[in-house]
């Protein structure tokens, strides 16, 4: 294509004129960048992982931790809001956080009421109207048509890509150039299919028509191209049209692949999880890749959620006692069966877990064998303390 264009520009002056008409004018279809499939897939993947998280309260003071668990367990792990189970609630929270930059839930007793981010306005109280409550939330309720004001301790606010720690930004806003570039080329591709043209049209004629006649001819051709039902270009005798190839498909594929890599890297998702890259997609997804994804992508999100809940859901006494929220999911729940078996075998054989703790991780029933509650060592050949009279009952070695 480029050689033809260069030849056209360098060619000698002849008695005929060629007037190129850029493909797609007036018929290019604009595609909403929000509709990018990779973008939507990445949000869906992370949202599903966060929906699986079970929340627990941990502390050296088990009494305070148990009190906090008793108070918050149903709200966080069963039914945060009437009619919404925990999986759907947290999945929606994460989708809102990533897609819109902010996710809000109103704390009402032992319930969490999800709020629409687009109806929330955040104010910084620099006049000190609310004493030390610097951040004020104002919500426009769609049902009651009322404007409600909330203090920060009444709102769980989960932010994405925040530059100031007060308000978040959507993933789209952060990576808008990548998504818009992909949408423009996608729109051009669809426009080519719709118009039946895949390049630049060059109309050749044998006489000097003058500027006005050339302009009239161009407008006529352009008008013809706008008609999506027309697949033919009718020209007067003595004229002919040629399409200079426009390799937009190759350009689209190159840009698309580059964008997929940029989008997945931005979200911290391995290419294999969106069935891209070498091999057979998720079929070649390794345990190391999943572990890395969990540690570098999911775990920081868990820490962000937990930090907000620590401040808003724990009492002052529980905070002073060292209580904190964290995921109570078993670390092995996200591994495949083969990897899980290998790790658990090593942990049991190395005295890290008891056989019953390993069985619990697999959701198997506990064994009644007395040895199943003892920590083993030497590859599982004996219990810790054998020969010394200090057998290791329970989930941790004595003295820990």
Report what the structure shows.
With 400 residues, the chain is of the alpha+beta class. The model is unreliable at 1-28, 279-283 and 387-400 (pLDDT under 50). The radius of gyration is 31 Å and the shape is flat. The chain has a three-stranded antiparallel sheet with strand order 1-9-10, with helices on one face. A three-stranded antiparallel sheet has the order 4-3-8. Strands 5-6-7 form a three-stranded antiparallel sheet, with no helix packed on it. The N and C termini lie far apart (73 Å). The chain has a domain at 337-383. Helix 6 (176-195) packs antiparallel against helix 8 (248-267). 42% of the residues lie in helices and 16% in strands. The relative contact order is 0.13.
Oligomer: single chain
Integer-rounded radius of gyration: 31 Å
Shape: flat
Q: What's the arrangement of strands in the largest beta sheet?
A: 1-9-10
Succession of helices and strands: HEHEHHEEEEEEHHEHEHHHEHHEE
Strand content: 15-25%
Number of DSSP helices?
12
**Main sheet record:** 3 strands, antiparallel
The span between the termini is 73 Å
Structural class, please? alpha+beta
Low-confidence runs of at least 5 consecutive residues: 1-28, 279-283, 387-400
Average residue pLDDT: 77
Q: Helix proportion of residues, in percent?
A: 40-55%
Query: What's the β-strand tally?
Result: 13
